[in-house]
Amino acid sequence: MRELPRDPAPKRNGDVMETDQICSRRSILSGAGALALLGVAGCSTTDLSLPALELDDVNTGSVRPVRPSISVDKNITSPDVMYASLTDNGFNVPAVPYLKVKPEFRRQIVVDTTGEAPGTIVVHLNERMLYLVQPGGEAIRYGVGIGKDGFRWSGRANIQYGKEWPTWTPPPEMIQRKPELVKWQGGQPGGLDNPLGARALYIYQDGKDTGYRIHGSPEWWSIGQAMSSGCVRLINQDIIDLYSRVSKKNPVVVM
């Protein structure tokens, strides 16, 4: 995704950390009157929590509704592709050892259960999951890290703009808690050690900066944990993928 038109630089950023990935299962296709399980394949045994299949009623001959099929995209469902090393804007992003990442936190395609419109970003804090709703009843799911107790934000908002390899400026209250961060009070340049990672999406509500971001993190092992100062963080490879799929004003629901 190209850098979006941006408002004046936000005055406040959240703290951050991160982790990584998952594989998906292949489609289940329905026929007229009978169901044929054509193939289920994946790189993990994680339950995707898909709706159960409903078979024909033998007595009445009626056909009950079935779950939507799940598409297969190797760029989303193949971990060696998703989490390989890459060069981005001159930075060499290291590969993520995905076998050390819990399967449920790896990127995958799932049936959408959010009820939101396509293009909506939905963050389930308790699940530690972010969903990007797709057309056709699917969603791309990413594992995330979230804020510690007392630092979380929830609500409906939108993405105001995004940045590649953004500068991170710790807010004054964070510097009070961690005086060693005073060296970055003027901003830490983007880079592999920057807490905002490879990309940041800036969340605004009613035209005002919430101070919260959806961003990358070099600490892939922290995905699935509550360790930040409130922001939603993803593995760098995942935030690069998510960033390429959204645009200004995408709706965001954090719950």
**Oligomer designation:** single chain
Helix content range: under 10%
Please trace the helix and strand order, writing H or E for each element.
EEHHEEEEEEEEHEEEEHE
Largest sheet: 9 strands, mixed
Radius of gyration: 20 Å
Mean pLDDT: 79
Approximate shape: globular
Low-confidence stretches: 5-60, 62-67
Q: What's the CATH architecture name of the domain at 97-254? A: Beta Barrel
Question: What is the CATH third-level topology name of the domain at 97-254?
Answer: L,D-transpeptidase catalytic domain-like
Q: Total number of β-strand segments?
A: 15
Q: What is the SS-derived class?
A: mainly beta
State the end-to-end distance.
Answer: 26 Å
Description:
Strand 1 (29-30) and strand 2 form a beta hairpin. The protein contains four helices and 15 strands. It has a domain at 97-254: L,D-transpeptidase catalytic domain-like (Beta Barrel), CATH 2.40.440. With 255 residues, the chain is mostly beta strands. The longest helix has 10 residues, at 236-245. A nine-stranded mixed sheet has the order 5-8-7-6-15-10-11-12-14, covered by helices on one side.
